[in-house]
Amino acid sequence: MTSSVRAAIKWLNSGGVVLGLAISVYTIYSFVDARITQNRQQYALLKQIDHESKYFITLAQALKGRAQQVEKLYADSLKQPSFPEPAQDKDSLPEDAERVSRWLAARANHLAEYRIPIEIDKVGAILDRKQADALFDLLAAQRIYVQVLRTRTVDLEAFPRRPGVLKRFVGVALLNTEPMAEKLATFAASLGIPTPAQKAGSAETPEPDSSRPIQ
């Protein structure tokens, strides 16, 4: 046995190589485990936000359906393309419109009180900047929807028989739900995890909605 071989065996027996390999294996394991944990946290977060946001959007779509019913009920009074501001409008809707308007307002207030529970500090520790931006865009779309809906609801409660007020409320209920659904899909895509709706949906890509939110 040559002296170089003896030296190599002695070095191996010293444990230095074994310790180095153990540290390397542990480092790789820790990295992989951290990535798996992060992916699980991301998935759990998406599921929570997806569930809560879809429930909120379901409530908004239900309000949209009721608003469409009311629009059809008073179609003759709401068919003109523009109306004066609420203060200048006239109480020209039938008397029963007051009851219907207050019913719509009650549903809108119920919807506006719903809150999506999200712990921002935990979100910041899990998501990268692109993902966080997508989430904040979703929350902003929901906040804008609620703010605009509240404004139109206040007008509807104050002037339940004015066609312009009712028309603007209906417009918000019909059009302002779409941006929230789009932002939710964008957030899910940023995580790389399909939402339940995407899993169950058709392989065809739907045409985008060209309508814009009413402010």
Describe the protein's topology.
Blueprint: H1 3-13, H2 16-73, H3 75-78, H4 96-112, H5 120-126, H6 129-158, H7 163-175, H8 178-191, H9 196-200
Q: From the alpha-carbon coordinates, what is the Rg to the nearest angstrom?
A: 28 Å
Shape: rod-shaped
Low-confidence stretches: 195-215
Structural class: mainly alpha
Termini separation comes to 88 Å
β content, as a range? under 5%
Task: Give me the count of strands.
Answer: 0
Give a quick set of tags describing it:
215 residues, mainly alpha, 9 helices, 74% helix, disordered C terminus
What does this structure look like?
This protein has 9 helices and no strands. It is mainly alpha-helical. It has one domain. α2 runs antiparallel to α7. The C terminus is likely disordered.
The gist of it:
This protein is mostly helical and 215 residues long. It has helices spanning 3-13, 16-73, 75-78, 96-112, 120-126, 129-158, 163-175, 178-191, 196-200.
